[in-house]
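Translate sequence into structure tokens.
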Amino acid sequence: MKLLSIGVALAVLGSPALHSQDDGLPPWVLTLSKIKRQAKAELQRTPNYSCLETIDRSQKLPGAQPFKPLDTLRIEVAFIDGKELFAPQGAGQFQDVDLSAFMSGGSLGTGAFTSVARNLFVNSGGLTTGSGEEKLGDRATIWYGYKMPELSNAYRLQGPGGEAYVGEEGRFWVDANSLELLRIEDRAVDIPEYLRIRDVTTAIVYGKVQIGPSPVLLPRMAETLVTDADGHQDRNVTEFTNCREYRSESLIRFGPDDSDTKPPVKKK
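Result follows.
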């Protein structure tokens, strides 16, 4: 059974901000500026929270049909003071560890919970590569293309041949009327041959979830597809449920071998 680990880390790329008060900018730039400001405000006002992350994993051998189920992982994931933390389902402790610590084989990706959206909108990462209008189901949407270079150190891949930072490109869609973020599709590019990974794609669906006194923008579902150099494919379909504001007093461990006891983290 193969062990592939995909990680996406937060990065501040320093892209210049767009200013809607400049009347000389084309309409698509003005709309993009509004979208980025709105999404950034939505993400920044999100309180510390946790969700149950259910990951259905399946695999397909080269030339085989269809995907065959591998297993289902259930992990508690939290976003606390700007960090993604994990814990086994039902555990009282969140840990600052790689998500791969909770699996024994197959592929596993991180980044769908917070990193992809925050790179694009909070950290102003990515260069715009195009835009257009499109229907998602019966919903009118606006899409924008983007790309991020490998030098941003935002996307880290681990494969049988080692690990490396790679570039990424993709699109995001927003509601044409409310400008609310609906979907992001992201693809790894410029993958070194020695990793023995041919392709990695991730699609994330967003929606409003009641957290505390008001609804906030959170990921609802995600799908990651990994294709290795031999054509073997691993698919993860992730659902985020039972999301709630993080208010409890818990001990956060920074690594499984950390012998130093950390003080409890208190949330109002």
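Note: The helical segments are 27-44, 115-122.
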